[in-house]
Amino acid sequence: MTEVLARISARRPWVTVGVWVLLVVLGLGLSGTFLGSATTTDFRLAGRYESERAATLLEEKLRGPEKLAEIVIVQSESLTVDHAAFRTKVEAVHEAIMALGPGTISGGIDDRPLSHYYQVVDAGPLISQEDLAQLLPLLVSVDQGTALLHYTLSGTSQEATSNVEDVIHVVEEANEADDFLVLIGGDASTAYENNELAEQDLQQGERFGVPVALLVLLVLFGAVVATLLPLGLAAVAIIIALAAVAVIGQQFQLVFFVTLMVVMLGLAVGIDYSLLIVSRFKEEMRHGLSTRDAVAKTGGTAGRTVLFSGATVVLALVGLLIVPASFYQSLALGAILVVIASLAATLTLLPAVLALLGPKIDMLTIPFLTRFSLKGADTSQGGFWDKITLIVTKRPVISLLIVGVPMIALSYFYLEMRTGLNDVNTFPDKAETKKAFLLMEEKFAFGAVGPAGFLSPAEIVVSGSIDDPQVMAAIERVRQSLAEDTTFTLPPQPPIVNDAGDLALLTLPFPGKSTSPEAADDMKRLREEHIKPAFDGVPAEVYVGGLTAEVADFYGIVRVYTPIVFVFVLGLSFLILMMVFRSIVIPIKAIIMNLLSVGATYGLLVLVFQKGIGADLFGFQHADVIDAWLPLFLFTILFGLSMDYHVFLLSRIRERYDETQDNTEAVAYGLRSTAGLITGAALIMVVVFGAFASGETVVNQLMGFGLAIAVLLDATLVRSVLVPASMEVLGKGNWYLPPFLRWLPDLRVEAPEEHSPAA
């Protein structure tokens, strides 16, 4: 199929290029128009989870779409709220914010008009002493030098995250006017700033990664024209994938991280796949084939490898789609789309361009770089990789121990991994929302609850006949039980009942950081030790929602689905590799080695980010926790990418072994014929992923470093030492297939070589 695609594309190259130009123009238009509305900062879980049920009931029966709260801080180092200048400043900030209109701001605390301290003071006897005692600690700091202004943003959470930009501009202008410090903090402003930081990291990754990848390609090809092709193809794949994201996102909103995923992985695999095609095309041209024949031969050999490699990555990512969380599904969908786009461009657009270029692929050759460019198997005999293979195969057991034992030791630190979710506290120090939360924690007597506990409280939703004496008694039992629990320092607010009388909401300021594992444990206690006993046998359904409940449910999803995804990906990979190589030994070894790479990567994440070893050297932040979504995400991505190299190397070894029946010589041939290409492709991936790890947000640092180090380990230590050493130890046993499985189809990747030395 790949050879047919290559022949068709080469026969009508201008038609093929024209179709892709139209697709790119259409893709740019779709992305520019719809991409902004296709992504969201909301992380949603499947509807069967408790936090989602609570959110759905509140939206349908009480308040409509959830509205986000924001806090604006006004602080003076020299003045207190008793000074007239302080009041003037607060009222000026408030008037500027309210002037934004109801499309942005819908009210003050709990949608009431009272937003700041002076409004409460002026209200005087209209407010009871009990309400006043509850309000004042939320409005003025203990030292009277900091005031909080409370607002509720209009619209859905997605609309609020967009509209909060206007509020941020007001705050920034007020902050520059005089000696007062004015900051903003809340769910919408935090999400907005997180988007901005992610965009900055994305741009920085592109600024650093693309030039360095260009330099690596120049070294590999030694010619400018051949170098620009992979970058151009990667750009085309990214544009098409982002357009698909924009369209799909109109029906199923995707988490905003999807764009980062598309760009990062698109650069990596787009360059990787085209590197394989271009290098093979140049090799076939050197063998004397005509341009069209070289394109067709490349499609039938390297094209098959690319198709299988891309399919392997996609199948691994499908495992993430079964996880019932929008974050995983968005990342998986973005990655799948850009891999498919890269495959389509590599198998059609690239052959058409190669057919047009022909020998001009080597135009603008840089003479002093050609000595480092990729060599074929016949010209690399006796070179560096031959020497490495000779050393490894001469002492295979020692080689296995020298490399395998340290990687196992690194994997041990995975057991010390502390997972959680990094929040605003891990933003760069320059982030305004981080400054706001730190200032609130410092100046206000929130106690164990903290500012996040007020902005994102737990929401206890009772669905049933609220007038029923049993239900009312159960609600009171919950309130009494929580009042006696020292973990929950503040009691839940009095219940709010909807007009129909069939739903009640109890708001509970929640202790600790909303996204921490400790808060998730407290949420489990709330559900199982307070709510469940109180409502046992009562004719009502009770669900706990809010941010901490969502996080606790997400942790539960990760625990349940991680082994399921592992089994799915490993089992599918085993079956595919067994059919490709007609051996049960090869897939078992491949799985063990890939798991070893992933385990060592997990261990390095713990050592660098949690223990701080080498973090300063790379400019990384310290992270108290590794984001809970990351290990499973890394596993699927890395398993797919590393399988690329494994299949490419082993297919050459198997092909040579079938010709010679000499295991040692086949390993040496396979390694020297693929090592340069694998190393070059891996180096480009390391550069691209490392570029994104150079960003300021700890999430991108964790993800970029994890991907880069895993690819580096896999393409060097695993491919150059563990694979040849293990194959030397097992000898002909590598190719053992039990008789009862010999009916399996032969799906080998590489077509037979016509230009091999043996032929």
Describe the structure.
There is one protein chain. The protein has 759 residues and is α+β, with helices and mostly antiparallel strands. It contains 26 helices and twelve strands. The chain has helices at 2-11, 13-38, 50-61, 84-98, 117-123, 129-135, 157-177, 187-221, 224-248, 257-286, 291-300, 302-321, 326-357, 367-370, 384-394, 396-412, 432-443, 450-455, 469-483, 517-534, 547-581, 585-610, 615-618, 630-660, 663-693, 698-730; strands at 39-40, 69-75, 105-107, 146-153, 181-186, 254-255, 419-420, 458-464, 496-497, 503-508, 540-545, 626-627. It has a four-stranded antiparallel beta sheet. Strands 9-10-8-11 form a four-stranded antiparallel beta sheet, with helices on both faces. The two termini are 25 Å apart. 51% of the residues are buried. Residues 108-112 and 752-759 have low confidence and may be disordered.
List keywords for this structure.
7% strand, 4-stranded antiparallel β-sheet, single chain, 759 residues, 26 helices, alpha+beta, 65% helix
